[in-house]
Design goal:
about 45% helix, 7 helices, single chain, TIM Barrel, alpha/beta
């Protein structure tokens, strides 16, 4: 199955920085992408950027997130929503309260977590999401990545091999661990300073 994702921010400042349009302008884009996904048999995933806070002072909380997520689901038919810790500022209690508010309110939605983490806080963040009912997680081998449109200092993605290892300790995931280990072994280190954005 093919997925197509789009970053819809609940921070007006970040929506401008990331997609060069307002939240309302992004809404029109999202509606068009939803139509294209339906017409072409693609699963549409909307990433709620800055779901757990932002460095700009823009308002954010479960009420703000629920307003937009409810519209995305009920007006545009978006089936998968990933709450995104875009700059790695989420505290476990923020993650827990956000998922605990949204999952029961929209039980037909597949909610996911797109968490930017450090080696010191990835487990607390994923545990908070898991305990609040989230079962879909994004990650990257060795945690590569970050959001260049957000701040000068990038916080990488969830280091997927560590998360998979933790899940395996709690029971089999059905994932091919050999393939994951090979991907970790062959991934090439790089410097973010050498990448142009």
């Amino acid at each position: 199955m093919s997925y197509l994702g789009y970053p819809f921010s609940i921070s007006e400042t970040f929506q401008q920085r990331n997609t060069n349009t307002s939240i309302e302008g992004s809404w029109a884009r999202t509606a068009r992408i939803a139509e294209l996904c339906r017409a072409n048999g693609k699963e549409f995933v909307v990433y709620i950027s800055m779901a757990f806070g932002n460095p700009y002072g823009d308002p954010w909380n479960a009420e703000v997130a629920l307003h937009w997520v409810d519209r995305l689901v009920n007006e545009l038919g978006v089936p998968i929503i990933a709450l995104s810790d875009t700059v790695g500022v989420a505290r476990p209690e923020d993650i827990s309260s956000m998922f605990s508010a949204l999952i029961p309110a929209l039980p037909q939605v597949e909610f996911g977590a797109h968490l930017h983490c450090t080696p010191a806080n990835w487990k607390a963040k994923t545990d908070a999401a898991w305990q609040a009912g989230c079962r879909r997680f994004d990650g990257a081998i060795k945690g590569y990545g970050g959001c260049p449109m957000a701040e000068d200092e990038l916080v990488g993605n969830l280091q997927m091999e560590l998360f998979v290892q933790e899940l395996e300790e709690g029971g089999r995931t059905g994932l091919d661990l050999g393939t994951i280990a090979a991907a970790v072994e062959t991934s090439v280190p790089f410097s973010l300073s050498s990448v142009s954005y």
